[in-house]
């Protein structure tokens, strides 16, 4: 009898509780059901082997220590393909699961593949969609329905076309002096000597250059607005947690911060567009090109919001590590400096070193930057190989395919880690060593994926390479530098990229650049 009374009391207490308590209990019960049913699910005979244990509990390192998670998965299964399930439930599914199509997607199958044959199949398969894969598995891009997500194919193609327009030779040539001027201002603000964290200062510089390249003069000329946008995008990075990806509708503090940051980014870009349209003052910038093309406002906003951070992150990571490596490899630093000085020797200011570097470098033609810098090309290639912790993400939009003799059903997500090829000692001996002089693996299919491969290659490659070369040229001629630890002591050996940091590969032990201005004016 006391037991019965206790149950009645508990029931009354629960019913009198508020909505928050009811909702929380419902979610816990739902997750418990998912946990049980997922463990009982069977796989097809030709399906990849599942991770040992309960995959729902095992997947959290995927978001925080992805490199270790994938490496462990291959080791634990002993296979060149394995799978796990990524819970991602919509609010509609819970409330109206019997009426919503989302109810069929409450558990997303993710398949990780490795090896040469898998690499070829992955990058050549027509049904593996990049946009769908990245949208679910990343979560760090500001998602606005109809603007940066859930876009029609026509809009995606239009954004790609506009990005190609930005990188036309005439546009890129006109952009070079502005990028160099932005670099000069940023570098002069560092002072004549000091120490900085490259993952702060160098990334800040690349963010400015990417803003200059892909947005408007009004925004990129305003340091306060640029700094605000960078902070908002940083909030998106920090706010991307397992909860915001797995249960994107649940109002966690991180999700609320992401929504707030996304709205503010949207408002800043939208206001810049409105101001340009209202004042009628034309500018020679990307925004003007988009307006002159007659694109819808949502397309313009989506172009700037999405491509801005996508470009700044990847290029920023490469720039941070490139200057770090050159600070610890004086021989390659000297080779790069000699190459740039050779190019300057044929410019109108070849003998007038009193002129600013930014002005002198701006007289080097675009085609020379692109075709006559083999040393810089080798340095950039090696940096993207060893310090870009990418995992290529796709979703199979159909039909089902086979990779490594394992079925990839329609709707499943597929991942190929770049570490599988870029850190393979059979392809790159001593793979963690920074060695721009190493020979390219020409006989290995897709042996280098720094800019993508197959049917999916980074569409901003041309712009990114130009930005990297300009920043490197300005810095190595304008400064002497080395790599030090927190106390200022020389750092030897150099730090190793942390591939678990999917944004910057920032070294766990930290590293700093110690610099001093040369006699050349910036």
Automatic annotation (TrEMBL):
Any one Gene Ontology BP term: sterol metabolic process
Molecular-function GO term, any one: oxidoreductase activity, acting on paired donors, with incorporation or reduction of molecular oxygen
Coiled-coil zones: none
Any Pfam family hit: p450
Cofactor (UniProt): heme
Keywords associated with the record: Heme, Iron, Membrane, Metal-binding, Monooxygenase, Oxidoreductase, Transmembrane, Transmembrane helix
InterPro entries referenced in this protein's UniProt entry, alphabetically: Cyt_P450, Cyt_P450_CS, Cyt_P450_E_grp-I, Cyt_P450_sf
The UniProt record lists the keyword DNA damage: no
Superkingdom of origin: Eukaryota
Family to which this protein belongs: Belongs to the cytochrome P450 family.
Residues holding heme: 458
Residues that span the membrane, as ranges: 12-35
PANTHER family from the UniProt entry: CYTOCHROME P450 26, LANOSTEROL 14-ALPHA DEMETHYLASE
Name of the protein this chain belongs to: Cytochrome P450
């Amino acid at each position: 009898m006391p037991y019965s009374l206790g149950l009645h009391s508990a029931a009354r207490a629960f019913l009198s509780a508020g909505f928050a308590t009811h909702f929380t209990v419902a979610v816990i019960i739902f997750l418990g059901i998912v946990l049980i049913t997922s463990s009982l699910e069977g796989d097809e005979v030709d399906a990849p082997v599942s991770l040992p244990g309960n995959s729902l509990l095992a997947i959290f390192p995927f978001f925080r220590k992805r490199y270790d998670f994938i490496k462990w998965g291959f080791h634990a299964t002993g296979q060149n393909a394995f799978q796990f399930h990524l819970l991602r439930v919509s609010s509609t599914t819970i409330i109206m699961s019997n009426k919503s199509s989302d109810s069929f997607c409450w558990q997303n199958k993710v398949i990780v593949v490795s090896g040469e044959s898998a690499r070829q199949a992955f990058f050549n398969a027509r049904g593996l969609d990049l946009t769908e894969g990245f949208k679910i598995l990343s979560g760090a891009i500001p998602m606005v329905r109809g603007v940066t997500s859930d876009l029609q194919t026509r809009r995606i193609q239009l954004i790609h076309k506009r990005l190609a327009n930005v990188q036309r030779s005439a546009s890129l040539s006109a952009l070079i002096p502005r990028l160099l001027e932005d670099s000069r201002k940023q570098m002069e603000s560092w002072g004549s000597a000091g120490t900085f964290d490259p993952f702060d200062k160098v990334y800040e510089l690349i963010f400015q250059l990417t803003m200059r390249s892909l947005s408007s003069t009004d925004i990129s000329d305003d340091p306060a607005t640029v700094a605000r946008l960078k902070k908002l995008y940083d909030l998106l990075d920090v706010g991307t947690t397992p909860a915001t990806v797995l249960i994107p509708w649940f109002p966690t503090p991180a999700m609320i911060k992401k929504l707030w940051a996304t709205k503010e980014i949207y408002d800043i870009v939208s206001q810049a567009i409105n101001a340009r349209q209202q004042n009628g003052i034309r500018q020679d910038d990307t925004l003007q090109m988009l307006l002159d093309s007659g694109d819808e406002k949502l397309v313009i906003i989506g172009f700037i919001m999405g491509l801005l951070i996508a470009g700044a992150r990847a290029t920023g990571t490469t720039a941070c590590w490139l200057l770090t490596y050159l600070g610890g490899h004086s021989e390659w630093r000297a080779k790069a400096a000699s190459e740039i000085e050779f190019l300057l020797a044929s410019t109108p200011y070849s003998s007038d070193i009193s002129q600013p570097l930014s002005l002198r470098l701006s007289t080097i033609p675009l085609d020379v930057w692109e075709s006559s810098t083999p040393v810089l090309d080798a340095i950039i290639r090696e940096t993207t190989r060893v310090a870009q912790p990418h995992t290529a993400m796709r979703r199979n939009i159909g039909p089902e395919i086979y990779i490594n003799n394992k079925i990839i059903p329609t709707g499943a997500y597929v991942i190929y880690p770049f570490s599988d090829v870029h850190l393979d000692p059979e392809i790159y001996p001593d793979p963690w060593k920074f060695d721009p002089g190493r020979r390219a693996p020409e006989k290995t299919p897709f042996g280098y994926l720094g800019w993508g491969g197959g049917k999916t290659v980074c569409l901003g490659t041309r712009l990114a390479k130009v930005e990297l070369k300009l920043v490197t040229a300005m810095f190595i001629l304008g400064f002497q530098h080395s790599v030090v630890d927190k106390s200022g002591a020389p750092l030897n050996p150099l730090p190793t990229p942390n591939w678990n940091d999917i944004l910057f590969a920032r070294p766990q032990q930290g590293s700093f650049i110690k610099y001093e201005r040369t006699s050349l004016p910036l």
